[in-house]
Amino acid sequence: MTISENRLSSPTAETIGKFVAIVGDKNALREPDEQAPYLTEWRDRYEGKTPLVLRPATVAEVSAILKLANETKTAIVPQGGNTGLVGGQIPNKEGTEIVLSLTRMNRIRSVDPQEFSITVDAGVTLAEIRKAADDVDRLFPLSLASEGSCQVGGNLATNAGGVHVLAYGSARQLSLGLEVVLANGDVWSGLRKLKKDNTGFDLKHLFIGSEGTLGIITGAVLQLYPKPAHSLTAFAGLPDLDAALDFFEHARSKLGPALTAFELLPRIGLDFVIRNMEGARDPLEAHYPWYVLIEHSGPEKEEDAIGIIESLLEISIGENIIKDAVIAQSQSQSLALWNLRDRMSEAQKPEGGSIKHDVSVPIALIPEFIARAAPVVESIIPGARPVPFGHFGDGNIHYNVSQPRDMSKDEFLANWEKLNEAIYALVTSLNGSISAEHGIGQMKQDLMARTKSPEELTLMRAIKASLDPNGILNPGKLL
Ligand code: FAD
Ligand code: ZN
């Protein structure tokens, strides 16, 4: 338990009545069946309890909720699209915390194609933002498999990554300004549109990645990009993992900023997708131990761009860095290739239990990390099947491990902590991070003390104490 949690109290019936009055009966959910979608999550690891799910519609309502929560020392758990993978959006099991859902704050406030920006409420889904940008011939490059459900407030609170970080950065790099309701109910209106602003601390960066522990994001100004005139997808088979590093170097040097994705897939992952996902097919004739999916996009016409990517592939085949490759010839072929990558997580579910690690290491050390992790897994769970895949170009590997075929799921999953411990120790020894893009939430909270320096933790706690002295915002998460 943290120090701040000691000061919190369970809301009384009178306090609950006051919370309900702020949003109105209809938007204060008290029935178990109404609350259920807010209390479980995608991975089925966390299930919470709550006296109330509040669904405010305005910044003023969020402000009133936090003011009351701060006065009554009631814990508030902000929730966006509930797609987070570390349990940050789920309240505790004791039923003492109130869930604040941003779902009804779903207005696109303005789109400005001329200055390449969009201003939105925090509850707008990522897919809606991408569409609004596309409608005015612009690109909002953040792209996640969860984009139909996740909300931009959640994306910013977790500093979400995805497949285009390589070229455009994560949610942090795509934000220009924020509007945040602070723990005491004050509203910080930082909806600036300035790319350059060196007037002291850049406060928005405190809230980005803070997972709802420092304030509630209610609005954001986001950076748009020109919509690429062409987008080409290629899929290459590699002889080994070291070759992926050489191929990355070639691709980055030859394509420059037009290399907009560089994703790694292992053969076993491809087998899972082909076996378990309808319509998936092997894109190359022979089998290779590793594959890379690359995307080349930019302002050139497709006819001009195709020569560049062909030359990259030819040179790489000539140097034995890749063995074979295919370039998608149509939108549907491109989607079919992306499908192999996007469904990699989902395709692991029918294979039984999966123990996950969202980690990053310096790019040059990815082959070493994957090579050293395999015997670690084997020594803890003989026969377990590692499926390392993900954002190679960002040094971010989703080191998932599927259960051995002949073991029960429960027996396998009982190894979760032990395996985590060993993999995180390896990652740390390689100067990597134990959470590359999913955040800390409640899943990795106890690891913070072991992987951050005392100085970093002291600074983080000082910031938390100053912005949320009563510790009402998402207690028990992150710190
Ligand atoms: P939630 O899950 O509701 O909340 C996440 C955290 O943010 C919680 O701590 C919550 O308290 C806080 N929060 C939410 N809204 C606010 C707000 N307005 N103000 C303050 N705090 C808030 N993540 C990646 O980075 N890259 C991926 O490629 C990726 N792929 C995914 C694929 C699938 C199929 C799934 C299910 C998830 C994936 N994720 C990925 C994880 C997840 O989608 C992201 O973390 C996303 O940013 C969470 O957004 P959300 O709106 O669902 O937030
Ligand atoms: Zn990812």
Task: Explain this structure.
The chain folds into 4 domains: 107 residues, Uridine Diphospho-n-acetylenolpyruvylglucosamine Reductase, domain 2; 119 residues, Uridine Diphospho-n-acetylenolpyruvylglucosamine Reductase, domain 3; 113 residues, Alpha-Beta Plaits, CATH 3.30.70; 87 residues, Alpha-Beta Plaits, CATH 3.30.70.2740. It is 35% helix and 20% strand. The chain is built from 16 helices and 19 strands. β8 and β9 form a beta hairpin. The chain is globular and about 75 Å long. The site of zinc ion has 5 residues, from β18.
Please describe the topology of this protein.
Elements: H1 13-23, E1 28-29, H2 32-39, E2 53-54, H3 59-72, E3 76-79, E4 98-101, E5 108-112, E6 117-121, H4 126-135, E7 138-139, H5 152-158, H6 165-168, E8 175-181, E9 187-190, H7 204-207, E10 216-223, E11 225-226, E12 230-238, H8 241-255, E13 259-266, H9 267-276, E14 290-298, H10 302-318, E15 324-327, H11 331-342, E16 354-355, E17 358-360, H12 366-380, E18 385-391, E19 396-402, H13 409-413, H14 416-429, H15 445-451, H16 454-467
Parallel strand pairs: 2-4, 3-4
Antiparallel strand pairs: 1-2, 5-6, 6-10, 7-11, 8-9, 8-10, 12-14, 12-15, 13-14, 16-19, 17-19, 18-19
Tell me the Rg in angstroms. Answer: 23 Å
Q: Which range best describes the helical content: under 10%, 10-25%, 25-40%, 40-55%, 55-70% or over 70%?
A: 25-40%
Bound molecules: flavin-adenine dinucleotide, zinc ion
Shape: globular
Q: Which spans of ≥5 residues are poorly predicted at pLDDT below 50?
A: none
CATH class of the largest domain: Alpha Beta
* Main sheet strand line-up: 5-6-10-8-9
- Main sheet specs: 5 strands, antiparallel
Strand element count: 19
